[in-house]
Amino acid sequence: MIAAPPSAGRVPGVRDAAARDGERGSGTVLVLALVAAVLVVAAATGLLLGAQRAHERAQGAADLAALAGAAELRASDGALGPACAIARRSAAANRASVSGCLPGPGGSLRVRAVVHAVAGDATAEARAGPRAASGG
C-alpha cells in the first residue's frame, strides 16, 4: 500500500491543534503589554501637565506678590520688611511661598515664588515697580 504524504488531508493555511496550543495566550500577553505602555504614557503625561500647571501657579503667585510688595514698598518709603511681608502674604493666598524678596533699582521689588507639586518644585520670578525702574 502507498502511504499518503504527511500533508494529505490538511487544508492549506490552517495549522493543526498541536501547533495552535503552543501559542495559546499570546494574544493576552500582547494586550497586557499594550495596556502597560498606554498606562506609562498616561502617567508621564499627567506628571508633565502637573508640572506645567505648577509653573503657571508659581508665575501667577510671583507676579501678584511682586505687585503687592512693590505697592507696599512705595507706600512705606522704601521699607523692605513690610513690602516682603505683604509679598509673602500674597503668595500664600495663591498657595505658594516666597523664597526670595529683594529690592531692585528705582524702587522696584524682585520676588521669587515656589509652588510644591508631585513632579517637584516649580519656581518663578517677577519684578514690579515704577516704570522708570524697568528701563523703558
UniProtKB/TrEMBL annotation:
Stored Pfam families: Tad
Top-rank taxon: Bacteria
Limits of the Putative Flp pilus-assembly TadG-like N-terminal domain: 25-71
Signal peptide per UniProt: none
Keyword Nuclease: no
Region annotation Disordered: where it falls in the sequence: 1-20
Keywords: Membrane, Transmembrane, Transmembrane helix
Segments crossing the lipid bilayer: 29-49
InterPro entries: Rv3654c-like (IPR021202), Tad_N (IPR028087)
Stated name of the protein: Pilus assembly protein TadG-related protein
Source organism (scientific name): Cellulomonas alba
Lineage of the species this protein comes from: Bacteria, Bacillati, Actinomycetota, Actinomycetes, Micrococcales
